[in-house]
C-alpha cells in the first residue's frame, strides 16, 4: 500500500515534534551541567585573553604564555586564600551569629512606625522562622558552591589550554556549509564575553573599595568581609547589589539600627556610581545590555536553575544577544 504525500508530511511533523520535545527534555535534565560548562567557557575566555596578551607583549609562544598565566593565577589565588580566608571565615561566622539579633532589631525598629507595624503584622513569626530555617541551610549551599567552583576551575584550565582543539572538534561534527557561520559565531561570542568580563571587573574592584571606605567611615563592623561580598556580587548586575545591601543591612541592624539610613544612602550612592558613571565609561568598549533584558534574564534563569542560573544569566544573555544581532537579525532583514 502506497503512503500518500499528506501522510508522509504528517509523519515528518510528528517525528520533528518528538525530536524537539526530546531535545528540550534533555536540555532541562542536563541544564545544570550545561551551565557549569558555560561557566567553564567564561573562565576559559578570560584565561585565553590573558595568555594572548602575555604572548603578544612577551614575544613567547602561546603554550608557554598560558602556563605562565595559569601558574600566576594559582599562586595569586593561593596567596589571597592564605591571607584572607581565615579572616573572612571568622567574619562570615560572626555575620551568621548576628542574624537572629538582626531580625529581632529589625522587627523592633519597624514596630516604631505605623507602616512598620503593618509589615511585621503581615510577616508574623512564621516569616521570621522561615528566614532562620533558610539560614540554617547555609552549609549545604556552601558545599554546592564549592563543587560548582571546582568543576568550573577544572573546565576552565582544560578549555583554555587549547581552545582551538575544542572549536575544531565541534565544527567537525557539523555539515561543511555550516562551519564558516558557526566558526564566526564562536569568534563573536568569545569577543562579547571577553568585553563583558572586562566591563564587570572594573566596577567589581572599584565598588568593593568604595564600599570598604564607606563602611569604615561609618564604623560598621565586619566592613572588610561586607565590602568583599559587595565587590564579588557586583558580578551579578542589579541583583548582586541588592543582595549585598541586604547582608550589610542585617549586620547594621544587629549592631546599631539607627545607622541603617546611612548604610542605605551609601549603597544608593554606590548604585548611582555604578549605573551612571562606571558602567557607561566601561561600556564604550564593553557589551551593553538593556536593563530590562538583564533583569528579565536573571528572573527567568534564577526561577529555572536557582543560584547558578542567576550568576550566569547576564553573560549568557550577552552571548545570546550578540548572536541574534549578528546572525538572526540580518537573516530576517534579507528575507523581507
Your description of this structure?
This protein starts with a helix and ends with a helix. It is mostly helical. Helix 3 crosses helix 9 (239-255) and helix 7 (176-217) runs antiparallel to helix 10. It contains 11 helices and no strands. The protein is 88% helix and 0% strand. The chain has one domain.
Task: List the keywords.
single chain; 336 residues; mainly alpha; 11 helices; 88% helix
Quick overview:
This protein is mostly helical and 336 residues long. It is built from 11 helices and no strands. It has helices at 5-29, 31-58, 62-110, 114-135, 138-161, 163-172, 176-217, 223-233, 239-255, 260-282, 291-335.
List the helices and strands and how they pair.
Layout: H1 5-29, H2 31-58, H3 62-110, H4 114-135, H5 138-161, H6 163-172, H7 176-217, H8 223-233, H9 239-255, H10 260-282, H11 291-335
Low confidence ranges: none
CA(first)-CA(last) distance: 43 Å
Largest sheet: none
Number of strands: 0
Mean pLDDT: 78
Order of helices and strands: HHHHHHHHHHH
How many discrete structural domains? Answer: 1
| Residue share in helix | over 70%
As a whole number of angstroms, the C-alpha radius of gyration is 24 Å
What is the number of helical segments per DSSP (H or I, 4+ residues)? 11
Strand fraction: under 5%
What structural class results from the helix and strand content?
Answer: mainly alpha
The shape is: globular
